[in-house]
Amino acid sequence: MKLLTCPVNGTRPLSEFIFGGEFRTAPDQNTCSDADWAAYVHNRQGAPGDKKEWWYHSPSGTWFIAERNTLTDKVSRTYLLADAKKADVKKVAVKKAVVKKPVKESK
Amino acid sequence: MPFRLLKYALKKEHPAPRFFKSLETPKKSYDVVIIGGGGHGLAAAYYLAKDHGITNVAVLEKGYIGGGNTGRNTTIVRSNYLTPEGVNFYDASVKIYEGLSEELDLNLFYSTRGHFTLAHTESAMRTMRWRAEVNKHVGVESRVVGPDEIAKACPQLDLSCSGQAPILGALFHAPGSVARHDGVAWGYARGADGYGAEIYQNTEVLSIDVKNGKVCGIKTNKGYIETKQVLSAVAGFTPRITEMVGLETPIVIHPLQACVTEPMKPWLDTILVSGSLHVYVSQSSRGELVMGSSLDPYEVHSTRSTLDFVEGLTSHMLDMFPFLSNVKVVRQWAGMADMTPDFAPIMGKTPIEGFYLDAGWGTWGFKATPISGKTMAQTIANDSAPDLIHTFRLSRFEDYELTGEKGAASVGH
């Protein structure tokens, strides 16, 4: 079974999770140009590599961050956003899990 | 009828014909370099030569021609889209497809079957009516039909879908067709080669040189090529190419999987699509059921297959056709779909002079092969995109003028 580790509920089947897209920080809407804002709204870092992503554990309603390589599909760690803001996020590092496709979700 | 057939029937010797020259090392410079030897790239090379007389062209393919998404789709050709711009564009493609076997002198097994998009809910029926009206307005043959007409066209279909999702009606699109997808790539390759374009397989682009906002050359694993015009037609590899020139796009890559059953006697004449059940299916000329489903739900740059996909797809197939329970799935595969937020492609010029993009083909690229080749050739030859693809320009995102085609995607992604 394909597994992913929720920082709150531990390792669970991937079918319980929903992909939430790339983790991004919005530019300041009061100061950024229209072109920069449009780029923020639409553009994505589509090239393969290590990414920070939003994931959602559906049964418990937990949003969290996963660091995953989009070429190898290996998750290096998952943690809550609150923990990411702490100076040292290494403490919340979790064991590696391989991510594969969950039971089909309709978007 | 392809005249070659007659010619070879009368000959005593039948040497295996080569479709294009086997070339190893590219020249030092070309007028145009096309990255990606799929249907789109090869069609662009063909029309550059045929329509515009530009023959000093190299097509660079990292693997083998037609080995990417051209050979991985479920071969459906249709034009029943949602926006008038989209319908016009795909209709132009269907019209070229209809005469393409003759033009390329290669039997593409282009087979017009009629295409039913099944609606299981009132909201789906509403979208079907919407699409039918837009299609009719533009002059494309689509109409909403009831369960009776669906049953007549496909008596094997369980209209109640095991009681799970009864079929209320469908959008019927008469020109809906299937074709032999690798044949399209091979036909365009032979055509382009005949005009003098050069095709290099196993040739990978390592970087693209841009100076003062202009393209000036390409570094490949077979040496450096000088050129002022580059077309990127690489579907699932687009973000890797655009990263080389520092161009940002909305494209993200999701795998799209498909599979085929063992061959059966012909029983399914039409192409059936069910958005609610996430299924599209047709029967190939070999008798296999060719089936596809929705995108994998998260970003991966991989063509790996999963068991979850086959389990999900086949369970929905059994809702529609319970009698298939003993039929075996013999092959499954995946392609990397370059998805855009509005489910429309990104075509035309870019902020980098001489760098042209034919991308964002997600789950809808095969049907557009001829027209995208033709319009991209026009764009390169005139350094200006024709009106037909204005709606697909990259700058539409900056202008917030998206071309919303999600409602016309074959299944709810």
Shape of chain B: globular
Order of helices and strands of chain B: HEHEEHHEEHEHEEHEEEEEHEEEEHEEEH
Strand content of chain B: 15-25%
User: Strand arrangement, largest sheet of chain B?
Assistant: 6-7-5-15-16-17-14-18
Descriptive overview:
The complex is a heterodimer of chains A (107) and B (413). Chain A is mostly beta strands and 107 residues long. Chain A has one domain: Folate-binding superfamily (Folate-binding fold, 2-Layer Sandwich). Helix content of chain A is 13%, strand content 36%. Chain A is built from 2 helices and 7 strands. In chain A, strands 3-4-5-6-7 form a 5-stranded antiparallel β-sheet. Chain A has a two-stranded antiparallel ribbon with strand order 1-2. The longest helix of chain A has 9 residues. Chain A is globular, with a radius of gyration of 15 Å. In chain A, 24% of the residues are buried. The C terminus of chain A is likely disordered. Chain B has 413 residues and is an alpha+beta fold. Chain B folds into 2 domains: 184 residues, FAD/NAD(P)-binding domain; 152 residues, D-Amino Acid Oxidase, Chain A, domain 2 (2-Layer Sandwich). In chain B, 28% of the residues lie in helices and 24% in strands. Chain B has 10 helices and 20 strands. In chain B, the strands form 4 sheets. Chain B has an 8-stranded mixed β-sheet, sandwiched between helices. A 6-stranded mixed β-sheet of chain B has the order 9-2-1-13-20-19, sandwiched between helices. In chain B, helix 2 packs parallel to helix 7 and helix 2 packs across helix 10. The longest helix of chain B is centred in the first third of the chain and has 17 residues. Chain B is globular, with a radius of gyration of 21 Å. Chains A and B meet through helix 1 of A and helix 8, strand 14 and helix 9 of B.
